[in-house]
Design a protein that fits this description.
- By secondary structure, this protein is mostly helical.
- The chain folds into two domains: about 100 residues, no CATH class; about 60 residues, no CATH class.
- It contains nine helices and two strands; from the N terminus they run H-H-H-H-E-E-H-H-H-H-H.
- A two-stranded antiparallel ribbon has the order 1-2.
- A hairpin with a 6-residue loop joins strand 1 and strand 2.
- The mean pLDDT is about 80.
Length: about 190
Amino acid sequence: MAKVKAKKDEFDIITKAQVEKMIDVAGAGADTLRKRMQNAGIALMVLSVKHPKDAVELANTLPERLGKGINFNAFAKWLMIKGGFQLSGDKKGFISHKGEKWMREHIAEARKVQWIDFAPPAEFKGFDFNTALHELLDKAGKMAKKEGKDAELVSIDTDMLEVVKQLLEPNGKVKAEGAMALVQRLAA
C-alpha cells in the first residue's frame, strides 16, 4: 500500500523573512523598471534621429507592451515634453517627433528629468478630523493591549488615552466633563 504524504498547510510554509525578501525584490524591481523605462525613452529619442518612423512605431507599441503596471500616461507626457514626440490630433498615438536638431539639443535635459515625475499627484480625498481621531483612539486602544515583545514597541500613556476618550461623545462632540478631565490631566 502506498503512503500518502500529508500536505503542508500553505499558511505554515512562509516566514516573515521570506516575505520581507519578496518585498525587497519587488521594490528593487520597481526601481529597475523605472530606470529601464527612462532608458527606453532616451533610446527612442536616439533612434528617432536616424530612423524616425521606427521610433514612432515603437513608441506606439509601449502601452500594450508595458501592461497595466506602468503609469503610461506619465511616460507618454514625458515622451512628448522631454522626448519631443508628438501625438495625433485624436491623441490615440504618436505620429512624429520634433526632428533631429531638437533631439540633439534636448537629449541631455531629457536624461536629467525622470519620466515618473510626470505622474499626477494622488487625488486629495478630503479629511474628516472626527473620523481620524476616532480611528486613532481605536488603534491606540488595540495597541495598548499588546503583550510580549510587541508591547515593548508600543508607547501609550493609557491615562491620557482614557481622558481623551472621555472627552468625546460617539458623535464627535466634546463633553464638558471630558474637557475638564483633560484640563486637569494636562495641568498635573
